[in-house]
Amino acid sequence: MATTSLQFWKPGTQGPGSSLDRATESEEIIVHAPNLSALGIQAQRERLPIFKHREKLLYCIEEYGVVIVVGETGCGKTTQLPQYLYEAGWAPPGSVIACTQPRRVAATSVASRVANEVGTILGDEVGYIIRFEDVSDKDKTRICYMTDGMLFRETMIDPLLSRYSVVMIDEAHERSIYTDLLLGILKKIRRKRPALRIIVSSATLDAQGLLDYFNSNTALSNNIPPLEQKPEAVIVSLEGRMFPVEIAYLDEPTSDYVRQAVKTIWATHLQQKAPGDILVFLTGREEIERCLSELSELLPDLPKGYPQLHPLPLHAGLSTDEQLMVFEPTPRDVRKVVISTNIAEASVTIEGIKYVIDCGFVKIRTYNPSSALSSLTTVPVSRASATQRAGRAGRTAPGICYRLYTASTAQSLPPSTSPEITRTDLATPILQLKALGVDDLMKFEWVTGPPAESVLRALEHLVAAGMIGADGRLTPSGEKVAECPVEVSIARMLFSSRDYKCGEEVLTISAMVAVQDVFIIPEGAPGALAELERRKFTAEEGPLNDTQDHLTLLNAYNAFVRYGRSSSWCKNHALSFRAMSRAVSIRAQLKKYMVRFGLPFDSCQGDSKRLRQCLASGYWRNGARWVMDGSYRSVRDDKVFHVHPNSVMFNRKPKSGWVVFHEIEETKKTHMRIITEIEPDW
Ligand code: CDP
Ligand code: MG
User: Fold this and answer.
1) How far is the CA of 74 from the centre of ligand 2 (A)?
2) What is the number of domains present in the chain?
3) What range(s) does the Helicase C-terminal domain occupy (predicted)?
4) How far apart are CA 123 and CA 136, in angstroms?
5) What is the distance of C-alpha 180 from the center of its chain?
6) Where are the beta strands (DSSP E) in 43-132?
7) Residue 103: half-sphere exposure toward Cβ, Cα within 13 Å
8) Which of 414, 52, 105 is nearest to 237 (CA)?
């Protein structure tokens, strides 16, 4: 396999649909990406395309309530704009410039970059806030990167967001649910607090639609005729420059794009003499790890005389330090291969990429209102995403993008991804909106209205769970749940732990399901070892030795604490030290909520039945029953489910025949993740 030739059209012979519309300007071709780290920080900042627009941007922010900034990815919006505002005096003591991100990884990595540029320790003048992790200082922080969900949550405590002078909603083109909700709320806040400034920024946005959204309704105040009033919002376009990107497609579709990616990396490295790094898009951590491990098997076969190949992962399961490694410039004789999730599509920009390998898929959260189930689903990327991904190869010089699909598949891709609000479970967002006093959901100024059926399902669920009363308002328990920083089902579980006397255990389980990627495959170890280690926690010497995923998580947590929270212990037991430490911190934070709500910390004392009953009370919408062929059927609509291969329930028949699960993941099959057996009469 070492020297497999590529089944691609040769670069240079462009296939149908390969034109990158914007990739034509190339008056000055830089063949070697300049090594920016050799320049001073100030010089680096001034080289970014956004720098030329600094004065215009500051003027517009002074003059208008809402500035919509559209500019090529990598031109400096996320890292520079908040700094320009800060330097121009927009964040005097007592006020903060917020910049929201749909992704945690982007918030943390950008914050540490900007802290670096400002010359401060992360968490002082520049900080970040993501769920369960606040690296900011109430008094010192002037620029705060945060996930959009966290800023939305803050409106429940401070409805006018009074500590913020400017809120920048970044990556707006992604149209995450909380971006949409924030836009609606911010439009409202602006009417009450005109001093607040809003920046909406994005790489490829339907800017006109947003402009109309913000400019509607504003002229009606003060009896001033509309024409004489200054509009609320303006658009600022930052012209970017892109180099041509050659697009190559597969002749035949592949059934295994991870393996195909490995082959393509290898062939690119051997055949492409021009220096330049490789960026690979896959859909998630598991694929990235497989790709890395298959690639590392090839590395010893690298023929003499070729530059070294340096593979690096980029996904949300990494520590901030690990994430930042992808930005390190590579030495001359080394080629970097960054294997990334969608994060590298627009949220972060890595210098020096000349070759992009695009698997053509993306993992998104989808929701099916008829079954009331949401799942992580791997779907084909949109044309807009594919163009954006290819564009990553043409930032500093002409590049090549290998698409791991055929040209005819490319033509059948949907033009763009639908806003998340149209395909998500609305139970938690609606609960939060109600907590904000938005009782009439029809009157909320949606950027895109949610589907009626999803709203109905969510309301139904919230009423059935006793969180919304017959009058459509929040009940006292609904108010409390809205405050909890976890999904409705988990909050419900925490509240019913009082009845089942298992607060201690449910608290731990809630923390463990909130962190992802607890079980890892240690470097160099076969996958079977991790599997073996995981099974061990099902029979840890603890009293809860049922073979169930939730109890396995509980046992793993307890053992981690018992053995002194040691990282070497984690390594030996195929657990992620970072994930486990995060679980400890999340547990401590959730514990504070339980104290506030007066929930007791009883232990079920090894009575796993009580604990499983409590889990069933939270996961009541996520039920399935076993059928003869070894698969499951969902309780609600008889859909076929399978057990995720990582589950300790894999290939085991539950005695009762019934299970509840934490979430659904859809790839080729529909998999239930994190499963616990229950009795049908619960
Ligand atoms: O937000 P936008 O896509 O417009 O650009 P940005 O994220 O602000 O990135 C501006 C520049 O900073 C790019 O050249 C990035 O490569 C660089 N950057 C970096 O070197 N290290 C980071 N951690 C973040 C950004
Ligand atoms: Mg950005």
Assistant:
1) 7
2) 4
3) 257-437
4) 4
5) 15
6) 66-71, 96-101, 126-130
7) 20
8) 52
Phi, psi angle pair for 361, to nearest 5°: -130, 165
User: What are the φ/ψ torsions at residue 5 (nearest 5 degrees)?
Assistant: -85, 155
CB count within 10 Å of CB 549 equals: 29
| 504/594 same-domain check | yes
Q: Which residues contact 412 (CB under 8 A, 6 or more apart)?
A: none
Higher confidence at residue 138 or residue 332? Answer: 138
The domain that holds 83 is classified in CATH as 3.40.50.300
Ligand 1: centre distance to CA 338 (Å): 16
Q: Return the percentage of the chain with pLDDT > 70, whole number.
A: 88
Which residue is listed with tokens 């998500």? 424
Which residues make Cβ contacts (< 8 Å) with residue 643, sequence separation at least 6? Answer: 632, 649, 650, 651, 671, 672, 675
Smallest CA-to-CA distance from 639 within 649, 625, 650, 652 is with: 625
Q: Which residue among 45, 349, 353 has the greatest number of ligand 1 atoms within 8 angstroms of its CB, and so is best to mutate?
A: 349
Residue 276, pLDDT above cutoff 80: yes
Asked whether 173 and 204 are in contact (CB, 8 A), the reply is: yes
At 55 the three-state DSSP class reads helix
| Phi, psi dihedral angles at 499 (to 5 degrees) | -70, -35
User: 353 has which bridge partners?
Assistant: 277
Shared domain check, 284 and 208: no
For residue 313, which of 329, 295, 289 has the smallest C-alpha distance?
Answer: 289
Please give the Cα distance from 543 to 342 (Å, whole number): 42
Quote the CA–CA distance of 102 and 170 in Å, as a whole number.
8
CA–CA separation, 652 vs 622, rounded Å?
Answer: 19
Domain termination site, one of 464, 483, 502: 483
**Element at 66 (helix H, strand E):** strand 66-71
Q: How far is the CA of 348 from the centre of ligand 1 (A)?
A: 6
Separation CA 375–CA 28 (nearest Å): 46
For residue 511, give the 3-state DSSP assignment. Answer: helix
Task: Render pLDDT for 368-409 as a digit per residue (tens, 0 to 9).
Answer: 777 777 788 899 999 989 999 999 998 888 999 999 999 999
3-state secondary structure of 581: helix
Q: Is the Cβ–Cβ distance between 666 and 639 less than 8 Å?
A: no
Host domain of residue 467: 430-483
Q: Which atom of ligand 1 is nearest to the CA of 75?
A: 4
- Do the beta carbons of residue 148 and residue 100 sit within 8 Å? yes
- Region at 599 (left for phi over 0; alpha for psi -120 to 50; beta for the rest): beta
Q: What residues pair up with 126 in beta bridges, in sequence order?
A: 122, 143
pLDDT exceeds cutoff 80 at 551: yes
The answer to the question of residue 107 being in a domain is yes
Phi and psi angles of residue 649, each rounded to the nearest 5 degrees, phi first = -90, 0
Least confident range from 10-19, 210-219, 393-402: namely 10-19
- Is residue 224 located within the same domain as residue 342? no
Query: Looking at the domain assignment, is residue 11 inside a domain?
Result: no
pTM for the model: 0.83
User: Which residue's alpha carbon is nearest to atom 14 within ligand 1?
Assistant: 74
SS3 265: helix
- Clarify whether residues 468 and 515 are in a common domain: no
Asked if residue 437 and residue 364 are part of one domain, the reply reads: no
**Strand pairing report for 658-666 and 670-678:** antiparallel
Dist. CA 2–CA 300, nearest whole Å = 10
Residue 314 half-sphere exposure toward CB, CA atoms < 13 A = 31
Cβ distance 135 to 128 under 8 Å?
A: yes
Closest ligand 1 atom number to CA of residue 80: 8
Ligand positioned closest to the Cα atom of 113: 1
